[in-house]
Design brief:
Two copies of one chain form a homodimer. Helices cover 36% and strands 17% of the residues of chain A. The first copy, chain A, is an alpha/beta fold and 359 residues long. Chain A has two domains: 238 residues, Aspartate Aminotransferase, domain 2 (3-Layer(aba) Sandwich), CATH 3.40.640; 102 residues, Aspartate Aminotransferase, domain 1, CATH 3.90.1150.10. In chain A, helix 2 packs across helix 7, helix 3 packs parallel to helix 4 and helix 8 packs parallel to helix 10. At the A-B interface, helix 1, helix 3 and helix 7 of A face helix 1, helix 3 and helix 7 of B.
């Protein structure tokens, strides 16, 4: 069938041009007589892919020399464990609560010390904001936050000031949605499958002197230091996933870089939230202005019956995966970097017509 | 260029028909209007892929109901840590030494208890066999061995008797090379990138009552039990890698199943070792008869100069990645399931001509 508009929260839509390139070189990678999938991670062909992905990410985010880039496996859920394993050491860490993902990170940290909540976006029974005022503890080993909460539709635009505490951020769903001052972070991690590529690789950007201090009382494969020393080649990396992230990075470069992404994403956000704000009696977004996610917009319609009808009709119109997470219901519009603004415009037009009919 | 014959030790050659299928459906997966790479792991399209891969692996290896199949990340190196983390608990475990990979597994286990060597394939300064006689300790929590040592070219054909001790095997480079009595193993793990598919996914076959006993004093993401309970969908799995393993499994089924693979592999081994044994003065294989790997044959030529010349000439003839591991030198012929017997025959013909010229 023709290409659908895929609002999936992840794995998510990819640039069509990237998929076409992958298809075209799938059997014979750049004249090497074999697929990239068959290339040794120790060979020069893969090495070029690996190094280009590193260099392009560094360039796109202006990553300073103080920071290193790692390509890991296991997703954000793996990082929920690796971070406290390396840096908690029985001590205290400050976590910021913006919903399910922060809670999972918090629960995982309990095995290695005493995480505490330094802030919450919850008000009553709902998460409504990305908290900027935090109650930091003097002895916290680090402060952990989730830059974008995919389920709750809450995103940090600016980040809270944590003084000289190492700031650790799960940016799985919005890394590279706009320019970022990487120097403010001790460690950033991001599963690739939302904003950066396919499932199967986790990007880490870490301050070198921070990971150098990490604990050593567990196997090297869990130590950021060791992975950095080996340029992520200590064992076989997920070569194809890294190759695809590399292609997505080239696509970002060709589309204005991080600033270009921000312009695209702001435009999508304005289109969607513009309609929501114009008709708050029909489209109810629980999230406060200023904390609304440009990556995942969540809203409710007047009744669950209308929500079911909306999901059925959008699907019939070729706009899929708009159902909200099972824990919150309603509608969720995921519109990561690769989502074309014109597709969001199409959805917004549909939403407005739906409102006129049923509002 | 035309397709080369790729003897890479991993990531390794894949069936051309599998690559062609992947290419043909890369943009539009089975009429869904999007790529498999863009499908949510919670959707029905991916679910069908996931379930088929599970079912096909179970069928191909006649996996009994006592055992479960898991799809993990992190490679064998991750498993080197996960196994002792779950099952060692400060106690003793028996490890069998067949070279670099067993040593890495052993070193990793030290963080969780007291691994000891229960057997070694080393004689003098070389690894020469897969030891069948083991010195097991009464209190070992498990026995760990590497079924095929890719660097040393040593493989278990039959396995040693470990009585009622749980047997754990790293089968990263030979799972499914022939039929297997899975019931003899408490846990099998295998990075996919040699015999089963691309890099980025690790298969685990585990006895349910064994993993049920695993420790719980660390995050759930490292607990086999938890992954089993969630059918490997506790977080986003490496969907594309699992999809490709699924395609390779279909290819195995279409080529006679595990018995068909054994026939192919035995044929390749006989061709190669037949020539080596006929001319032991020219082709020196350090490994004893009975322990020679059918997956990775290693041998030396009379001089390092001849080895360099051999590698250059084979490469020029379109046969690549034949260089032995940097730690042992010489020549290594990796010929996993997907390597066509006719390609090994071509190499053997070349080897014999080379011998006639230089012997």
């Amino acid at each position: 069938m023709s290409r659908v508009i895929n609002f999936s929260p992840g794995p998510a839509t990819l640039p069509l041009s990237v998929l076409e390139e992958v298809r075209d070189e799938l059997i014979d990678f750049r004249g090497s007589g074999m697929s990239l999938l068959e290339h040794s991670h120790r060979g020069k062909d893969y090495e070029a892919v690996h190094n280009a992905a590193n260099a392009d990410l560094r360039e796109l985010l202006s990553i300073p020399d103080t920071h290193t880039v790692l390509w890991m496996q296991g997703g954000a859920t793996g990082q929920f464990a690796f971070v406290p394993m390396s840096f908690l050491g029985g001590g205290v860490a400050d976590y910021v609560n913006t919903g399910s993902w922060s809670k999972k990170a918090f629960e995982s940290a309990k095995f290695y010390g005493e995480p505490r909540w330094a802030g919450t976006g919850k008000e009553g029974d709902k998460f409504v904001r990305a908290p900027m005022t935090l109650d930091l503890s003097a002895d916290a080993k680090y402060v952990h936050l989730t830059s974008n909460a995919t389920i709750m539709g809450i995103q940090y635009d600016a980040f809270p000031d944590v003084g000289d505490k190492p700031l650790v951020a799960d940016m799985s769903s919005d890394l590279l949605w706009k320019p970022l001052d990487v120097s403010k972070f001790a460690l950033i991690y991001a599963g690739a499958q939302k904003n950066l590529g396919p499932a199967g690789v986790t990007l880490v950007i870490a301050r070198k002197d921070f990971i150098e201090q990490g604990a050593k009382d567990f196997p090297e494969i869990f130590q950021y230091r060791y992975i950095a020393e080996n340029d992520s080649l200590q064992n076989t990396p997920p070569t194809f996933a890294i190759y695809m992230v590399g292609k997505v990075l080239k696509w970002v470069k060709a589309n204005g870089g991080a600033a270009g992404m921000e312009a695209r994403n702001r435009k999508k956000g304005e289109l969607l939230y513009g309609l929501i704000d114009a008709h708050p009696e029909f489209f109810r977004c629980p999230v406060e202005q200023g904390s609304r996610s440009v990556m995942n917009a969540v809203f409710r319609l007047p009744t669950e019956e209308l929500e079911a009808q909306f999901l059925a009709e959008t699907k019939a119109a070729g706009m899929v995966n708009l159902k909200g997470h099972r824990s919150v219901g309603g509608v969720r519009v995921s519109m990561y970097n690769a989502m074309e603004p014109e597709n969001v415009a199409k959805l917004v037009e549909f939403m407005d017509a739906f409102r006129k009919k049923h509002g």
